[in-house]
Design brief:
heterodimer; A: mainly beta; globular; B: mainly beta; 7-stranded mixed β-sheet; 4-stranded antiparallel β-sheet
Chain lengths: 111, 115
């Protein structure tokens, strides 16, 4: 079955440093979504990427979808303490609704 | 306001007991999902339903059962056959169908502990 891996599993940064998490799928995806889960909370939808090579930005967050539609990345510029949490990618195959979530990257930001 | 309500927030179960986790949404979403999250791990799909009176097994359905008698409700039963049920359970919903690739809306989750 489809597998979605993320690296790194954990990342500690100093406030103001940049952060990147990478997502790799074993199969070609029709689209990919990103979610953020704060400690003790539930995942919250951030964005969806559909097109090969697509790049989208949300303030300090930049999301990319690979040309082969098998990988994706999330880059945060100048991290803040509010960025703390676990970031998940989630891939969708074909036209179905089912998402396969990645293993997640836990981000900790130190002052 | 529209959203998904999961109850209870915390649940304690004795070994050998079945327990049912509630999930209700008023978003008018057709599709609903149950995920399990273990500490420090990702989300694993238990069951999903794309329409009333229909549901499919996910990746880890053994020891769980669901029903979808109403569009708004998708309860999950954790049976005694589930050998390691202690986990954080998340319910989600979305619009279905090709082209309607909306993000999932998640409930606040239920933390189940076996005592």
């Amino acid at each position: 079955g489809q597998q979605v891996m993320q690296i790194p599993q954990y990342q500690h940064v100093q406030e103001g440093e940049d952060f990147t998490t990478y997502c790799n799928s074993s199969t070609t995806l029709s689209n990919i979504q990103w979610y953020k889960q704060r400690p003790g909370g539930h995942p919250v939808f951030l964005i969806q990427l559909v097109k090969s090579g697509e790049v989208k930005k949300q303030k300090r967050l930049t999301f990319q979808f690979g040309e082969a539609k098998k990988n994706s990345s999330l880059h945060i510029t100048a991290t803040q303490t509010t960025d703390v949490g676990t970031y998940f990618c989630a891939g969708r195959e074909g036209g179905g609704n089912k998402l396969t979530f990645g293993t997640g990257t836990q981000l900790k930001v130190e002052l | 306001d529209g959203g998904i309500t999961q109850s209870p927030k915390y649940l304690f179960r004795k070994e050998g007991q079945n327990v049912t986790l509630s999930c209700e949404q008023n978003l008018n979403h057709d599709a609903m999902y149950w995920y399990r999250q273990d500490p420090g791990q990702g989300l694993r799909l238990i069951y999903y339903s794309q329409i009333v009176n229909d549901f499919q097994k996910g990746d880890i359905a053994e020891g769980y059962s669901v029903s979808r008698e109403k569009k708004e409700s998708f309860p999950l039963t954790v049976t005694s056959a589930q050998k390691n049920p202690t986990a954080f359970y998340l319910c989600a919903s979305s619009y279905p169908g090709q082209g309607a690739f909306d993000g999932y809306t998640f409930g606040s989750g239920t933390r189940l502990t076996v005592v």
